[in-house]
Give the backbone structure.
Amino acid sequence: MTTQSVITRIDDSEVDANIHHFIAHYPPLANDRKSFKIAVKDGVVTVKGHVQSPNTRRYFVDRLPEIEGVTGVKTDGLFDEQTIRLDLARLLPVGVQGNVRYGLVILAGELPAGTSAETLIAQVASVPGVERVLTQFEA
């Protein structure tokens, strides 16, 4: 006698609901929920956007595969603000501060002599996770 196993796939809308339930019950993710997007297709979850801390990102990425109905996870487009801040700190010259909020970077302060605002903006914009750069340099 041959036995056949039946694999029941959960509908993507139910997987999405399971993920949102998970998010609602983890306060750091619940606080960041408007700053990232989730898409589910055939059980594969794609997350893009921003969370505040590496710990929140790691917790989210590590727990997603455990959610019922999730068959795969893509999080290449999920960034955390703290890592962006650290990356910026390596680029910014003395006298320039960078504030980060969900992919938006605001550069302020005084540019050192010989520093091009355009070049600095291009360097900052190339940091993974930076979506937009604004400046408020002193004259």
